[in-house]
Amino acid sequence: MKKSIFLFLFLCSIIFVSAQNKFELKIKGEVKTPYSITLADLAKMPQATAVLNDKDGKVHTYSGVQLSELLAKADAPAGKEIHGENLLKYLLVKSADNYEVVFSLAEIDSSLNDKKIILADKMDGKALDAKKGPLRLVVEGEKRPARSSFQVTELVVTSAKE
């Protein structure tokens, strides 16, 4: 009995690791260079940290890649390009459970805003668990973590202009 339970847990961990290795985040929409990126590629990018309180008020430190870095790699409008019609552009963040949140590009851009927004793969130095990962959007400084989405799968730049 113990051997079968161990075998089951072992197989589950292999499946989880395999799924993590196949995971790709998609960055697409109104960008010049849409792309997909793996967890291994994200780990090679410059890392940042952000602090977030959970629902119980416990403070956690997350680490990952700044959202602006991922959008820059896709050549999304940034810096001096954020004016005129580009002020109508926004980022739609999609999660595996169909949860979606929105940020204006101006809100993400470091030339216009000091808000720290990262796509984290670690919490308190450890990989995110399956319920929250492999990637979690973390928005530091918001009073409620409503936009700090779990299981992020896609970043889509689009426009509010019809």
TrEMBL record:
InterPro entries on file: OxRdtase_Mopterin-bd_dom, OxRdtase_Mopterin-bd_sf
Domain Oxidoreductase molybdopterin-binding, residue spans: 60-141
Signal peptide: 1-19
SUPFAM superfamilies membership: Oxidoreductase molybdopterin-binding domain
Swiss-Prot/TrEMBL keywords: Signal
Pfam family, one: Oxidored_molyb
Protein name: Oxidoreductase molybdopterin binding domain-containing protein
Species of origin: Soonwooa buanensis
Taxonomic placement: Bacteria, Pseudomonadati, Bacteroidota, Flavobacteriia, Flavobacteriales
